[in-house]
Amino acid sequence: MIPFLTYPLALMALAAVPALAAIYLLRNRFRRRQVSSLVLWQFQVQSKAGGAKINRLQLPLLFFLELLALVLLVVAATGPQWKLPQSARPLIVVLDDSYSMRAVSDNLSAQARAHDFLERLFRHQPPPSTRLILAGGDPRSLGTTAKSWREVNELLSQWQCRAPAAAIDTAITLAAEVDKQQANILVLTDHRPGDEKISNQRLEWHAFGLPLDNFAMVNASRTAFGERDRCLLEVANLSSNAHATKLTVQYGSNTVQSTSILLGAHESQRLVFNIPAEAPLLRATLDADPLAEDNEVQLLPPIRKRVRVQVALANENLAALVSRTLDATGLRAAISENPELVFHETGTAAGSNAWSMAWSTLAATNAYTGPFIVDTSHPLAAGIALEGVVWAAAAATNAPGDVPVIFAGNTPLLSVHEDPLGRRQLTLNLNPEISTLQNTPDWPILFWNILAWRISEMPGLQESNARLGTEVDLKTTGEAVTVTQPDGGKRFFPKTGGELALETPLPGIYSVVANATTNQFSVNVLAADKSDLAACATGQWGKWGEDTEHRLVEASVVWVFGLLALALLTTHLWLVATAKGRS
Fold first, then answer.
1. Cis link prior to 85 (omega < 30° from 0)?
2. Which residues contact 420 (CB under 8 A, 6 or more apart)?
3. For the chain, which has fewer Cβ within 10 Å, the N-terminal or C-terminal residue?
4. Three-state SS string across 11-49, please?
5. CA separation for the pair 542, 204 (Å, rounded)
6. Is the dihedral of CA 425, 426, 432, 438 positive or negative?
7. DSSP states of 350-414 as a string?
8. Which residues, 6 or more positions from 367, have their beta carbon under 8 angstroms from its beta carbon?
9. Are strands 254-263 and 243-251 parallel, antiparallel or unpaired?
10. CA angle, corner 504, sides to 481 and 285, nearest 5?
11. Residue 72: predicted pLDDT
């Protein structure tokens, strides 16, 4: 059977064979001379090997040893692979990495029972090679191929069961692609498959879960509400019977609530309450049950960013109108020094580091009643309807580089331009003296959108509380960022762009250090479908087909040629050392 050569270009090294033959074929021819004595000739036995004339062919044993060793080394360099018979199939294990696998019954979790089953499988009959795939939100392969229980057990240390979801179907597809449908696939989870009739002869599904009653926090939030924070907690009874639990809510040493909650089967209850804005970390807990991960939430104070705004409008009435509207949004900072947003009239320069709103009232005498064209996907247009609005504006065309947000026909009423420094330059084409826009709900909405958009582009975290598995956005100015996870692990980003999406693989408090400033955000387990243990089950579905025939599997045989070459070179060295390699 002809082997497959992985690196056929290595055959070019066979050009050394003629060079080796030339060394033995080309020798010096000596003239015979008569001398009186050989006493002064110390090396009369040795002769020079090599020359320019072809001598009678006299090849010693060393030549054939060197030739054969050279050929073997060249063949080994090509990386030959032979198709060898293999009766046992490789194994790919798909591991459910969702946190429902941590539910405990009789002091054992589904994860622990699956681990024990896998150990017994390897102790009984270890397969030739094994790969592990974690089925979390995004399936991923763990390490390389393992061939013993010790190696597999080392890889299992990465199986933490912390994910809010388990994409097992995607993981099975990945496993089939990894080994081209040749490996046996073993799924270890806590629930039955969607289709209990598994027709795939290479798939075997094992579930180690138990249907358990469970209370869980399924929703939690803490938002700014004026000078206070408004908190929402949703508790669910994820079982088929009525049960009671105790909810305890604390911040610092203060207890906000400590009440018993009685809920019917699959019933939930929401609690809404206010706490002081200066209150530190809020912690809410439920009584212990089979799944501890969803019995606690931690909520940090919401991020309250304010925009420093400078109103540089010459028209006093217009400036007063803008100031009143900005104050009503609740997003304006108390100070205006070093402004981050400047309202000015056309022709007035904005601050060097600020966004600007250029207000154009010159010749704004054309009254438009619609229909208005609004780019609802733009942050400035969120929630704006313009129903029944009279908008007085100057007839104009869109300036080069401007992105229109609101149109009346072909007249831009609100447009945005980004300068080379990344600052946003807004242009508002409006004369409020003969318009009705300022008397409608769209007016404060527009100003709230302007300030909220400016806040979203400020450096720092965009939120302080997130769900497990989501990404938390961090705005940066290119500085290095260090993220400390709840388990103490750290991730360092030496160089960042304008935005960094931080992964949240673990629940708990994360710390972010950027520009010598430390911020924190909290990650909570809030996923009702994974907290619902009623559908968990124990059993086996599907069975691997028993192959009686031998399969041909490509295997590297480089080591065979390498060992043969080593044996020949060892023999060559021994012959030279004992002078037995001469002709």
1. no
2. none
3. N
4. HHHHHHHHHHHHHHHEECCCCCCCCCCCCCCCCCCCCCC
5. 5
6. negative
7. PPTTSEEEEEE-TT--EEE-SPEEE-TTSGGGTT---TT--EEE----PPTT-EEEEEETTEEEE
8. 390, 391, 392, 434, 435
9. antiparallel
10. 120
11. 84
pLDDT at position 87 is 45
Q: Strand, helix or coil at 97?
A: coil
What domains can be seen in the chain, in order of their start residue? Answer: 4-84+557-577 (no CATH), 88-212+533-546 (3.40.50.410), 215-289 (2.60.40.3230), 309-456 (3.40.50.880), 460-524 (2.60.40.1930)
Give, for 491, the enclosing helix (H) or strand (E). Answer: strand 490-493
DSSP per-residue letters across 40-86: T-TTSS------SEEPP----HHHHHHHHHHHHHHHHHT-EEEEEEE
Residue 136 CB burial class (10 angstroms; 0-12, 13-18, ≥19): buried
Tokens found for residue 268: 């939930």
Q: How many CA atoms lie within 13 A of 426 on its CB side?
A: 26
Burial of residue 139 (CB within 10 Å: 0-12, 13-18, 19+) is buried
Count of beta carbons in the 10 Å neighbourhood of residue 8:
11
Nearest to 105 by CA among 506, 538, 507: 538
Cross-strand bridge partners of residue 467: 524
Q: What is the reported pLDDT for 553?
A: 53
Q: Is 45 exposed, middle or buried (0-12, 13-18, 19+ CB in 10 A)?
A: exposed
Do the Cβ atoms of 128 and 88 come closer than 8 Å? Answer: yes
Quote the distance between the C-alpha of residue 47 and its chain's center: 71
What is the arrangement of strands in the sheet containing 228-237, beginning at the earlier edge strand?
215-225, 228-237, 268-276
**The residue to which tokens 């065979």 are assigned:** 560
pTM: predicted TM-score of the whole model, two decimal places? 0.72
DSSP conformation letters of 174-236: HHHHHTTT-SEEEEEESB--SSSS---TTEEEEEE------EEEEEEEEEEETTEEEEEEEEE
CB distance 163 to 99 below 8 Å = yes
Q: How far is CA 336 from CA 346, 354, 396, in A?
A: 20, 11, 32
Concatenating the DSSP letter of every residue in 244-266 gives EEEEEEEETTEEEEEEEEEE-TT
| Bridging pattern class, strands 517-524 and 508-514 | antiparallel
Q: Which of 284, 281, 238, 132 is nearest to 529 (CA)?
A: 238
Q: How many Å apart are CA 335 and CA 163, to the nearest integer?
A: 44
**pLDDT score for 215:** 94
482 touches 489 (CB < 8 A): no
Q: How many helices (H) and strands (E) does the chain have?
A: 9, 37
Which residues of the chain fall below pLDDT 70? 1-4, 26-31, 38-58, 82-88, 126-127, 179-181, 346-352, 362, 546-555, 579-583
Distance CA 441, CA 329 (A): 12
First CA to last CA distance, the chain: 37
